[in-house]
Predict the 3D structure of the following.
Amino acid sequence: MTSQRAETLASIDNANVEEAYARWAPVYDLVFAAIMKPGRKAAAAAASRDNGRVLDVGVGTGLELPMFSRTTRLVGVDLSEPMLKRAQDRVTNERLDNVEGLIKMDAMNL
């Protein structure tokens, strides 16, 4: 597969992913918060470190952000702008001062 063809397929896939998560964003927390809470909580506990830093790839609506130690600095990335908007609302509403940034980007470009 040529590089150009791979890039074209990736952009099509990204468009589909963005479209899907734009539809999910309004209800994502209602559907997934409870069922995924134990795993998110365990992951946040395992990654939390005093004065540590975490890059949350696929941060989505930020469900796990409040689960991290407040001494752990966080940056979240996600492909979906509507999901990031909800994550930013969570950061603001819950005063998560340890979240240093939420960035729209394709994690494949890290």
In short: The chain has one domain: 3-109. The CA atoms of residues 66 and 96 lie 7 Å apart.
